[in-house]
Design goal:
Layout lengths: L2 H14 L1 H37 L5 E5 L7 H8 L6 H10 L3 E16 L2 E11 L3 H5 L3 E4 L4 H5 L4 E4 L1 H8 L8 E4 L2 E9 L4 E2 L2 E2 L3 E5 H7 L7 E6 L5 H15 L11 E4 H44 L1 H9 L4 H37 L8 H27 L3 H6 L2
Parallel strand pairs: 3-10, 5-7
Antiparallel strand pairs: 1-11, 1-12, 2-3, 2-6, 2-11, 4-7, 5-10, 6-7, 8-9
Helix pairs in contact: 1-2, 1-12, 2-10, 2-12, 2-13, 4-9, 10-12, 10-13, 12-13
């Protein structure tokens, strides 16, 4: 029997017993849909994290006091380290030939006022000049503050679009004076609108020069540094140059451990994968249980089908059908059943992922490998769990089968 006829018989059996076929496929549908949905969310999160890390360029690395903390001991050790200062940034800016930008960074929370209007709990970001290139920010109106503004500790700021909307309505914010915390600042510029990502509003912040920030936030002495190398190839050289300069400034002897941390986007991605890898494996495992149950249901239904069609099998064998013909027919039928459930599951899982991505902050991205994986899994389940019923049908004695009532 040719493949097309076997598939036709299988589809005919599905149409003839719609409810039974649906219940048979339900386990496969749920399992494949769950796998596709999970993979879509994981892919969406991976893309989001990668885009955020690479927004400033893959040739950016960070120097800070703490680094990536994974234990209480590491935290206690990091707390003993010396602070990193804007002066460190100045020295690195002059002394790292393979770096094009060194930005000192610090953050806090405050309120912003203009006349009778107030925006509460916005993020106040202290940055040195050139912050746009490492923070993936574009100033769309006015200008960003420069090195002179920072060195002179001028009370100037750049505001986000939502802060501008709430404070100024339709007024032009450039040149206006706002109250940031306890100080009055002149608005130099406004950044582009970013929207909301993962439920976090990206447009509620105010940028001020880092030295201005530290002058009025005396409790904050430590800063982080973002360093942009000339290119991806120059990244290791820039890291080593920065490390050598900081060790020399801190009078660290050869063999003595660094009392600062250097972090790259690869380090952050590795940490992210370690944190999410276990969750991903457990979720896929739970979805696989549904696929296993679906496979068992398919095997049971195929055994029932073999029993119901015993006389048909006997007639086919009496007319010259070989064992492999009967075996292939039932294998094709079980695979077609499972594959049909897999295709429905792919559509359902894709729909769920895209719907959740559209109505919630959770990003989702359906990838072709996930679709191929869903098709492959459903096909394998059909072949594996259909093998025993198919072998049982192929072993039937034609004479006994013809006598079956």
């Amino acid at each position: 029997m040719i493949l097309r006829e076997s598939v036709g018989i299988a589809l005919g059996a599905i149409r003839a017993n719609k409810l039974r076929s649906f219940l048979t496929l339900l386990g496969t549908i749920i399992g494949v849909a769950a796998v596709i949905a999970v993979l879509s969310f994981v892919e969406g999160l991976n893309r989001y994290v990668s885009e955020k890390l690479l927004a400033a360029g893959s040739n950016v690395f960070w120097v800070d006091k703490y680094g990536i903390i994974t234990s209480q001991e590491a935290w206690e050790d990091a707390m003993k380290r010396r602070d990193i200062t804007p002066e460190d940034a100045d020295v690195l800016r002059e002394g790292v030939p393979h770096a094009t930008m060194v930005v000192a960074m610090a953050s806090g929370n405050t309120n912003v006022r203009f006349e009778q209007k107030i925006v509460r709990s916005i993020e106040l970001r202290g940055r040195s000049a050139g912050f746009e290139s490492v923070d993936d920010i574009t100033v769309v109106a006015g200008r960003a503050f420069n090195e002179t503004d920072d060195l002179r500790r001028r009370l100037v700021c750049v505001i986000a679009p939502e802060v501008a909307d709430e404070l100024f309505d339709r007024k032009d914010p450039i040149g206006q004076t706002v109250r940031v915390g306890s100080q009055s600042y002149e608005v130099l510029g406004m950044t582009e609108r970013k929207g909301s990502v993962l439920g976090q509003n990206q447009d509620r912040y105010v940028w001020v020069p880092i030295r201005t920030f530290l002058k009025h936030h005396t409790d904050r002495r430590n800063v982080d540094l973002a360093i942009k190398s000339e290119s991806q190839a120059a990244l290791p050289l820039a890291q080593q140059e920065a490390r050598n300069i900081l060790r020399a400034r801190r009078h660290l002897r050869p063999g003595q451990a660094d009392d600062f941390s250097i972090t790259t986007s690869d380090n952050v991605m590795d940490l992210y994968r370690n944190l999410t890898g276990g969750i991903f494996v457990v979720t896929i495992g739970v979805a696989s249980i549904a696929l296993l149950v679906g496979g068992i249901v398919i095997m049971n239904i195929m055994l029932v089908s073999v029993t119901e069609r015993t006389r048909e099998i006997g007639i086919r064998k009496a007319l010259g059908a070989r064992r492999r013909d009967v075996l292939s027919q039932f294998l094709v039928e079980s695979t077609t059943l499972s594959l049909a459930g897999g295709l429905i599951g792919i559509l359902l899982g894709t729909g769920i992922a895209l719907l959740v991505g559209a109505i919630s902050p959770l990003p989702a991205a359906v990838s072709m490998p996930a679709v191929i994986m869903g098709i492959a899994m459903s096909s394998i389940i059909g072949i594996f769990f259909g093998s025993y019923p198919a072998a049982r049908a192929a072993r039937l004695d034609p004479i006994e089968a013809l006598r079956y009532e």
